[in-house]
Amino acid sequence: MARQTMHYNLTTKALPALSVVDHVIQDTSTKRWITPGVVVDTGDFRDYFIKTAARRVFRQNRRFLLQRFAVMPKGSKPMVGMPQIAPPTPPTARRNRRLPPQEAVEKSTRMRTSPQ
Asked: Which parts of the sequence are annotated with region: Disordered (predicted)?
C-alpha cells in the first residue's frame, strides 16, 4: 500500500484548500469551467458542497473546482487603499491597414505526371 501511495503522489500537486463563501467554477466532467457557484460546506476529505445560481447543491472533489475571484460590478467604488487600475485601451483599427507587398513566388520546374 505504501508503494502505491508513493507512486500516486509522484504526479500529484497540492491544491489550496477552499473556505466557505469562496466563489468557484465547477467542471462537471465536461472539461469546461462554466458552472459558477459558492462553497457552502466542506466535506471530510477533499470534497466541497457547492451551491449554484439555480439553488442546486453539488458535492465536488477539489480537483474539479477552480477558485474564482468576484469582479466588482460597474459603478461601484473601490475600497480605500486599493490600487487604481486604468481602463483597457480600445484596440487599434485594423481595417484600413495595408499589408506589405509580397514577393512573387516562383513555380517549380519539376515535371509533373498525371495520376493513372
From this structure: 76-116
